[in-house]
Design a protein that fits this description.
Elements lengths: L9 E3 L5 E6 L12 E6 L9 E6 L9 H14 L5 E5 L4 H13 L7 H8 L8 H8 L4
Parallel strand pairs: 2-5, 3-4, 3-5
Antiparallel strand pairs: 1-2
């Protein structure tokens, strides 16, 4: 079972996969918990009751280990077909939006259109910096 498509923060990818983006600074939303999460933070997050992967990604920057990020994102995309997948950073906009844009590229959205896709379907504040926009627009599936 995946996410309710109308739940806050849920992005529907072209394949129909549903992924939730959120900011960890806010309380966990009501409803079902994630089954897998990709956390994008400068320091390791606390343990969770669900499977989670941490990618070191300082605020307003890019992932410290880009190949590790790409591998974790591919895993998240695969799991999103049948599981509740969450992608989150502290605020839920810059790093989360960038990762969602890269995920959209994996799902078939042209890289040049990925940021606009995520801003329209997830949050107009998604992807905060010029280098995050450039990273997403150059991400390869």
């Amino acid at each position: 079972m995946t996410w309710d498509p109308d739940a806050p923060g849920v992005l529907r990818l072209p394949s129909g996969r549903l992924v939730r983006g959120r900011g960890l600074a806010r309380p966990l939303p009501e409803g079902p918990q994630p089954q897998f999460a990709l956390y994008l933070l400068g320091k390791e997050p606390p343990p969770t009751a669900w499977d989670a992967v941490w990618v070191r990604w300082p605020d307003f920057r890019l992932p410290a280990d880009k190949p590790a990020f790409a591998a974790a994102l591919r895993d998240a995309w695969t799991r999103a077909e049948t599981e509740r997948v969450e992608i989150a950073c502290h605020g839920g906009h810059g790093r989360t939006g960038t990762a969602l844009a890269c995920l959209a590229v994996l799902d078939g959205v042209p890289a040049a259109e990925a940021v606009a896709f995520v801003r329209a379907g997830y949050s107009p504040k998604a992807v905060e910096t010029p280098w995050q926009r450039r990273f997403a627009s150059r991400f390869e599936s």
